[in-house]
Amino acid sequence: MSRAYEEILEGATLPRSAPGERHEKILQRLHREMAVSVNGLAVTQLLPPRAQVQVSRLTLLCPDLALVTAASGKLVLAVEVVSRDDHHFDTVTKKEIYEQLRVPRLWMVDPRYDNVEVYHSFEFGLQLKGILAGKEILEEKLVPQFKMTIADLFGA
Question: Which pairing describes strands 125-133 and 115-122: parallel, antiparallel, or unpaired?
Answer without folding.
Answer: antiparallel
